[in-house]
Amino acid sequence: MQPKLSMNIKKATFVASNISINKCPQDGYPEYALIGRSNVGKSSLINMLTRKKNLALTSSMPGKTQSINHFLINSEWYLVDLPGYGYTKTCKQKRKIIQKIINDYLHQRKELICLFVLIDCRHNPQKNDITFINELGENSIPFSIVFTKIDKLSWKQLKENIYIYQKILSKDLEKLPPIFTTSSKNRLGEKIFLNFIEQINQKLKT
Ligand code: GTP
Ligand code: MG
Question: Tens digit of pLDDT for each residue in 54-72?
Fold first, then answer.
């Protein structure tokens, strides 16, 4: 029988914040990046997973993270906090810049092993999330979906909302991605999420 994998984050350090992928760390460690609409809880999830309250900067106002932020975990892999997409209140020029940062990272960063697309579990499927996810599929970018803020819904409602998403995504995607559910407020979903990463890290070592 295979031993059950279990990962604990013993060390988490902020390494760099960049707006150009050319300046991102060059040490070749595998990267797991978090993306999603502004305010969905990307930075909060990094703080929850690393058990550090202010490692990634969070805000109740959308548009807080505007660069690529690398956090080195256990001295062997990175969690990457990306800017949010779809925040309409920023000016057009800034939105364009952020879009370019995101596109460059997704299409050119060879260290990216898995992109986690965060979705607020309370909302109906949003057009820009679905388009974004379908484009990941078309471009063969490996990704998973994380439903965030699950403390805000009953289990029944959560299950229903995930089902609606799966139904829509299965229209265009050949295969549905892995799905995770988390609450940074109540520390839910931590183990399953980290063990998924650990499993991939172990495979990369063999
Ligand atoms: P940008 O950097 O602006 O793209 O946002 P972000 O996706 O990094 O969101 P952030 O982590 O800054 O969180 C946005 C707001 O949502 C903050 O007020 C958080 O406290 C709140 N929040 C994040 N995760 C959760 C959660 O699991 N449950 C609840 N109830 N609130 C959360
Ligand atoms: Mg953020």
Answer: 999 888 888 778 899 999 9
